[in-house]
Design goal:
By secondary structure, the chain is of the alpha+beta class. It is built from 6 helices and 19 strands.
């Protein structure tokens, strides 16, 4: 047999490397239809070791985990105890599929891994878009966000429809001509019963607001939430036409949001200012979460949301609904980084420990608006 030419040797070498690279990636990213039932700790240890060997960026691994999550979540969410499914990162910084379960309900055995990714089970829920809680006392002074503010009012304070209780004005948004106050559908459209032009108040009725003295604007548009456990809601949001809100929080808050949105990533630091708990900070627990959310004070209806952001821990309570979640980007000296205060999500539900938010890009796209904030006002 004659020897190959240098050119042929080079081609064979390149092809060998490419085949090996493809095989490694297929091995770790291929979505298997079945799942072995095994110890979650064993699966997590084995898969963390395997994924460290895969020459694949974390962003691509996250995308692979999301694909696996989507393929299996219908079966997972069909289990009565499962309240949410999302994608997070392990302490080693590798993707894992997180299944949240109601501790009050019996749970059958769950797989220790799905595809190439470990499954981590955590107790959480039920998640509720519920009535406001009593407001927290001030820790650093400043006016109570439940009170009536001189016009124009800041963001992060009490608001509501004349027939609702109270939620939070999350942000000022603009379509380039008009300005609107952004909050939740369940804050501005109580029980789904409201129409454009209805009066909206600051503060909300439970905090003493009434018409006509406390009218802050009129309902302009909203995205109805489909109350069904098989729905695929993406946002719980509404906007009110007004020129009586300024895009900054009261003293003691984070200030003005930036105008450019930021995509949430697991482990990202965030903050919010809301009607009930004022300024709080937290960490993105999971992304692309599918969550069952209970509506109504008696828990009479359930709505499923997909593509949501989950924030930990003790970040919000009832009445903070509508708050704008923004990035908290600080260096070791406490100075703000380039992403600080960039909008991330619109808060709408929680269970006391975990908070659920709509990705803010989905909200802005739905209404054709942009955040009014620091770059626009110069404040």
């Amino acid at each position: 047999m004659s020897a190959m030419s240098p050119r042929k040797n080079l081609i064979v070498a390149i092809a060998t490397v490419l085949v090996a690279f493809a095989a490694i990636n297929l091995h770790y990213l291929f979505i298997r239809s079945g799942a072995d039932i095994r110890s979650a700790d064993d699966a997590r240890s084995r898969d963390d070791t395997a994924l460290r060997l895969a020459p694949t960026p974390v962003s691509e691994l996250l995308a692979g985990a999301i694909q696996v999550q989507r393929a299996h979540e219908p079966q997972l969410l069909a289990l009565p105890a499962v309240t949410a499914v999302g994608v997070s990162l392990s302490p080693a910084g590798l993707p894992q599929i997180k299944v949240f379960v109601d501790p009050a309900l019996p749970l059958p055995g769950l797989p220790g891994q799905l595809g190439a990714f470990p499954v981590l089970v955590r107790q959480a829920g039920p998640f509720m878009a519920g009535p406001p809680a009593a407001a927290a006392p001030a820790t650093e002074g400043g006016p109570a966000p439940t009170g009536r503010f001189d016009r124009p009012v800041p963001i992060g304070v009490s608001t509501g429809h004349t027939r609702s209780t109270a939620g939070t004005i999350g942000a000022v948004v603009t379509d380039g001509t008009r300005r609107y106050a952004l909050s939740n559908w369940h804050v501005f459209v109580p029980a789904g019963d409201a129409k454009p032009g209805d009066s909206l108040l600051q503060p909300g009725p439970v905090d003493g607001g009434s018409s006509p003295d406390d009218v802050i604007g009129t309902l302009a548009a909203f995205e109805p939430v489909i109350l069904s456990p098989t729905a695929s809601n993406r946002i719980d949001a509404a906007i009110a036409l007004t020129d009586q809100v300024v895009p900054r929080t009261p003293p003691g808050g984070y200030g003005s949001p930036r105008t450019v949105a930021l995509e949430a990533k697991p482990g990202m630091g965030v903050q919010k200012y809301g009607r009930t708990t004022r300024l709080t900070t937290g960490t993105v627990e999971a992304v692309n979460a599918s969550v069952n959310v209970v509506y109504g004070s008696a828990g009479s209806s359930m709505a499923r949301f997909t593509g949501q952001i989950m924030v930990c821990c003790n970040f919000s309570q009832g009445g903070d609904s509508g708050s704008l979640i923004v990035a908290r980007d600080r260096d070791r000296g406490g100075d703000p980084g380039p992403n600080d205060r960039k909008p991330v999500a619109l808060l709408f539900a929680g269970d006391g420990r975990l908070t659920i938010g709509n990705p803010i890009a989905l909200v802005l796209d739905a209404f054709g608006v942009a955040i009014a904030g620091e770059e626009e006002t110069g404040s």
